[in-house]
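Lab channel / #folding
Pinned by the channel admin:
"Please post every new chain as: sequence first, then the structure tokens as a reply. Keep commentary short and put observations after the output so the thread stays searchable."

First post following the new format, from NK:
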Amino acid sequence: MSGVSSAATDINGTGTAEARAGGASTISNVFSFPNPVNEVAARTVAAGVVVMAVTFAVTGWGWLLIPLTYGFIARVLTGPTLSPLGRIATQVVAPRLADHEKHVPGPPKRFAQGIGVVFTVSASVLWLAGATGASRAVIAMLAVAAFLEAAFAFCLGCKVFALLMKVGVVPEAVCEECNDLSLRIPGLSQST
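Reply from TO:
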């Protein structure tokens, strides 16, 4: 499917069920996170984060913390809906890439975005407090994590999420798909 111009497009670029049915977007659609997530779109967002984070870490331009912080907060709350970077990734970049239909579970990606909120808010507070070096170091760590996602599809936040599930901090019901590969790989459910 090529780019979708609907205002109610999820991270898969397919649109919410209500938008596909021709209905208007509701508040519950805006404040939802897609599941599954288009991994190509997620990696595209991570690439944008790398560019902004490295630029901030090198230059110390405090204004870059505004779009970085806003982007993570918007993506945690609404997926790509209110995130300019998320919208570009889902509606412009990912649909134009040859292999853009790989999907991964949404809850770990949302958790990873939440970690991004912690890093960017912390860096913003540090910068406002005059600790610009510490702020740049925090964003440099975020840049490393975003680079791993963008370049290798290795999501550190997702790995932490899986560990928290394994030790019982995150209930398995939060991500059934994370635990049951047959839900992601159709051939496995038929081989019983």
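NK: The first helix runs from residue 17 to 20.
TO: also worth noting, The two ends are 33 Å apart (CA to CA).
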